Automatic annotation (TrEMBL), chain A:
Organism whose genome encodes this protein: Flagellimonas abyssi
Protein name: Cation acetate symporter
Lineage of producing organism: Bacteria, Pseudomonadati, Bacteroidota, Flavobacteriia, Flavobacteriales
First-listed, main subcellular location of the protein, grouped into a coarse class: membrane
Keyword Transmembrane helix: yes
Gene3D superfamilies: Sodium/glucose cotransporter
Automatic annotation (TrEMBL), chain B:
Organism: Flagellimonas abyssi
Protein name: DUF4212 domain-containing protein
Swiss-Prot/TrEMBL keywords: Membrane, Transmembrane, Transmembrane helix
Residue ranges constituting the Sodium symporter small subunit domain according to the UniProt record: 9-84
Membrane-spanning ranges: 21-41, 53-72
Length: 571, 87
C-alpha cells in the first residue's frame, strides 16, 4: 500500500469510529429527542450541525471544480447558497422556533388548519428530500471507490450501514452531535490543502486574500490577471467575466437563495434550540461556519485552474506527472492525441481540444497536482465522506419524521402512543436509508440533474406558504394550498419540458429548446419565477375566499413575539 | 385594543423596519454589486480583484454574515425594550 492509502484508511477509520462513538453516547429516548434532539441544543452546536447538514458532497467535492470551469458565473452558487441564510435568519427561523412544533408540514398543517395542506407539504418534503439524498449516497460510493479502491456499490453499502446506525439509534439527537464532529472534519480537510496551495502560489497563507495577490515567482503579476490571460489565450472567456446572461444569473441566484431558505432539512434544525434568540444566533453562526468554506472555494478554484492549465497545456504527454496517469485510470481526466504531435492541446474549441477533465478532479486531485504531503491527500477522503454522510442523515430524518409524525400520527392514526410513534420513526428512517441506498447503487439518470432542481422545487412550494403564514395574518388555507400546488406543478412542468425535453422528443431536443426559455431563464433559475407565481396565486385566491378563523390569527400574532417560546410542544 | 396588543403591534412594526433596511442591504450587495452593476464596478480594482467580481465571489458573503449578527444584536435589544427577553 502507498503512503497515501495508509493515511486515507487511517483517517477514514478514525472519523467513522468517532461518529459511532457519538451515536452510542447520544441515543434518543423519546419522540421529542428523536425529532428535535429534546429542544436543548446550544446555538454553537446547532450552528456547526446546520453547517454540516447543509454542506453536502456537492459543496465539498464539486463546487470549487464547477467554479473553476465557470469563472465569474460560479458566483450564482456562492451567493445563492449563502444568501439564503439571511432570509432564514430574518424571515423564518425565529418565528418557526416560536411556533414550536417538530416538522415543516406541522407548521403548514396547523397554520392553514387543514389536513390537505399538511399532506401537500409532506409530499413536497418527500420529493425534495429523496432527490437530494440519492445524490449523497452516490457521493459516498464515489469517494470510497476513488480513494480506497473498493467497488462503488460496496462504498454505498458501507455508507448506508454507518448512517443507519446513528440515524436510527439517535434520531435528531445522534445526528446533531455527529454533525458537529463532521463539520470539524470537513472544514479541516478543506482548509489544509487550500492554505498549503495558497502559500505555494502566492506566498499568502490566507486563501481568501491569496487569490487576489501577486504570484510568488517574483514577476509582480496578479494571479487573476494571469488566469484571465491564460483563459483568453486558449479561447475560453476571461475567468473574471462569465458567459451566462445577467437575467439568468439573477434568476438562478434568487432560486438558490429562496430554495435554501425553504429546504425542510435546514429549517428543522432551528426547532432544536431552546429559545427564539438562540434560533437567530445559531443561523448567524451556521452562516459563519459555512462562509469559511464558501469564501475559500473560489480561491481553490482559481489555484486549481491555473495549476491545471500550466501543468498540461501544450506539454508533452509523456512528461505528465504521476497523478495524471493515476486519475486517467478513474476516467476523470482523458487525453486523445487528435493531431498526433504527442502534446496536450487544451483549448475551448471542441475540434482542436484534446483534454477532457471532470470538474470533481479540481478538489479530489488538487493536493496531488500541487504535490502536497500524503496525509493532506488522505484528509480529502475523510472530509468528503463527512460532508456526504452529514447531509444524508439530515435528509433521512426529514423523510422519517414526515412519514411517522405527519402521515401516520397526524393523518392516519392519531391515537398512536408515543412509544409506537418512536418505533414508527425508527422504522421509516431504516426504510428511507435502504431506498436511498438503492438509488445510490442504481442511480436513475435524472438524479444529478434533479439535485440542483430540488432548490427550485423548495422555492416554488414551501417558501411562499411559510412567509405568508408568518407575515400575512389573513392568509387562508385555500390561498396557500392553491399557491403551493400551482407553484410546484409549474416548476415540475418547466423542468420536464426544458431539462428533460419530454414534450419535444427527449433529451436530444433539450439544447434546441434553449431559445424558447421563458424570459431567458434556465430551468435552474425557474424556481424564482414559480415562487412569484405561487405568491400571486395565493394572494388572489385569498382575496376571494373567507378569512382564516380567529384562533389561527391569534397563533400568528403569538409567533411574532418571542417570549414564552417554551419547548417544542408534544401533541 | 388592549395594552398587551398595542405593545405587540409596536414591537412588530419596529421589527419590520429593521427587516426592510437589512434586506435592502442584502439585495444591494448581492444582486446589485455582484450582478446588475458588476461590469461598472469591475473598472475599480483592489489589488488583484476587480470590485464587481470580488463582491460576487467574496464580499457579498462577508456582508451576509455581518447582516445576521447585526440583526441578532438589534433584536436582542428590541426584545429587552419590550420585555420579551427570555433570560
Amino acid at each position: 500500500m502507498s503512503d497515501v492509502q495508509i493515511w486515507t484508511y487511517a483517517l477514514v477509520a478514525l472519523s467513522f469510529g468517532l461518529y459511532i462513538g457519538i451515536a452510542i453516547w447520544s441515543r434518543a429516548g423519546s419522540t421529542k429527542e428523536f425529532y428535535v434532539a429534546g429542544g436543548g441544543v446550544s446555538p454553537l452546536a446547532n450552528g456547526m450541525a446546520t453547517a454540516a447538514d447543509w454542506m453536502s458532497a456537492a459543496s465539498f467535492i464539486s463546487m470549487a471544480g464547477i467554479i473553476s470551469f465557470a469563472g465569474y458565473d460560479g458566483a450564482v452558487y456562492l451567493m445563492g447558497w449563502t444568501g439564503g441564510y439571511v432570509l432564514l435568519a430574518l424571515l423564518l427561523a425565529p418565528y418557526l422556533r416560536k411556533f414550536g412544533k417538530f416538522t415543516v408540514p406541522d407548521f403548514i398543517g396547523e397554520r392553514y388548519y387543514s389536513k390537505t395542506a399538511r399532506v401537500v407539504a409532506v409530499i413536497c418534503a418527500l420529493i425534495v428530500s429523496f432527490t437530494y439524498v440519492a445524490g449523497q449516497m452516490r457521493g459516498v460510493g464515489i469517494v470510497f471507490s476513488r480513494y480506497l479502491e473498493v467497488d462503488i456499490n460496496t462504498g454505498v453499502v458501507i455508507g448506508m450501514v454507518i448512517v443507519l446506525f446513528y440515524a436510527v439509534l439517535g434520531g435528531m439527537k445522534g445526528i446533531t452531535y455527529t454533525q458537529v464532529a463532521q463539520y470539524c472534519v470537513l472544514i479541516f480537510a478543506f482548509m489544509v490543502p487550500a492554505i498549503f496551495i495558497s502559500i505555494q502560489m502566492t506566498g499568502n497563507p490566507v486563501p481568501q486574500l491569496g487569490f487576489g495577490d501577486t504570484l510568488s515567482d517574483g514577476s509582480g503579476t496578479y494571479l487573476l490577471d494571469k488566469l484571465d490571460g491564460l483563459s483568453e489565450e486558449l479561447g475560453f472567456a476571461a475567468y473574471t467575466d462569465g458567459s451566462k446572461s445577467t437575467v439568468d444569473v439573477f434568476a438562478i441566484t434568487l432560486a438558490l437563495m429562496v430554495g435554501t431558505a425553504g429546504l425542510p432539512h435546514v429549517i428543522v434544525r432551528f426547532f432544536t434550540v431552546k429559545r427564539v434568540r438562540d434560533a437567530r444566533k445559531s443561523a448567524g453562526l451556521a452562516l459563519l461556519f459555512i462562509a469559511i468554506l464558501y469564501t475559500t472555494a473560489p480561491a481553490v478554484a482559481v489555484f486549481a485552474r491555473t495549476n491545471l492549465i500550466e501543468t498540461v497545456s501544450g506539454k508533452e504527454y509523456d512528461q505528465m506527472p504521476e497523478w495524471f496517469s493515476r486519475w486517467e485510470k478513474t476516467g476523470l481526466i482523458a487525453h486523445e492525441d487528435k493531431n498526433g504531435d504527442g502534446k496536450i492541446q487544451y483549448v475551448a474549441s471542441p475540434e482542436v481540444n484534446e483534454l477532457t477533465v471532470d470538474r470533481d478532479i479540481m478538489v479530489l486531485a488538487n493536493p496531488e497536482i500541487a504535490d502536497l504531503p500524503a496525509w493532506v491527500i488522505g484528509l480529502i477522503a475523510a472530509g468528503g465522506l463527512a460532508a456526504a454522510l452529514s447531509t444524508a442523515a439530515g435528509l433521512l430524518l426529514v423523510i422519517s419524521s414526515s412519514v411517522s409524525h405527519d402521515l401516520i400520527k397526524n393523518v392516519l392514526k392519531p391515537d398512536l402512543s408515543e412509544k409506537a410513534e418512536l418505533w414508527a420513526a425508527r422504522l421509516s428512517a431504516a426504510v428511507a436509508v435502504v431506498v436511498a441506498g438503492y438509488f445510490g447503487i442504481n442511480p436513475p439518470g435524472f438524479v444529478a440533474a434533479v439535485v440542483a432542481l430540488a432548490f427550485g422545487l423548495a422555492a416554488a412550494s414551501f417558501f411562499p406558504a411559510i412567509i405568508l403564514g408568518i407575515f400575512y395574518k389573513k392568509m387562508n388555507s385555500k390561498g396557500a394550498v392553491s399557491g403551493m400546488i400551482v407553484g410546484l406543478c409549474l416548476m415540475l412542468f418547466y423542468m420536464l419540458k426544458f431539462k428533460f425535453g419530454i414534450f419535444d422528443g427527449g433529451q436530444e431536443a433539450v439544447a434546441g429548446l434553449q431559445e424558447n426559455w421563458w424570459f431567458g431563464v434556465s430551468p435552474e433559475g425557474f424556481g424564482s419565477i414559480a415562487m412569484i407565481v405561487n405568491f400571486v396565486v395565493a394572494i388572489i385566491v385569498n382575496t376571494f375566499t373567507a378569512d382564516p378563523p380567529e384562533e389561527v390569527q391569534e397563533i400568528v400574532e403569538n409567533i411574532r413575539v418571542p417570549s414564552g417560546a417554551g419547548e417544542a410542544i408534544e401533541h | 385594543m388592549s395594552e398587551k396588543q398595542k405593545k405587540a403591534t409596536a414591537y412588530w412594526r419596529e421589527n419590520l423596519k429593521y427587516l426592510t433596511i437589512l434586506l435592502l442591504i442584502w439585495f444591494l450587495v448581492s444582486y446589485g454589486a455582484g450582478i446588475l452593476f458588476k461590469d461598472a464596478l469591475d473598472s475599480i480594482r483592489i489589488g488583484g480583484f476587480k470590485l464587481g467580481f470580488w463582491f460576487a465571489q467574496q464580499g457579498a458573503i462577508y456582508v451576509f454574515v455581518i447582516l445576521i449578527f447585526v440583526y441578532v444584536r438589534l433584536m436582542n435589544k428590541l426584545d429587552k425594550k419590550y420585555g420579551y427577553n427570555e433570560d
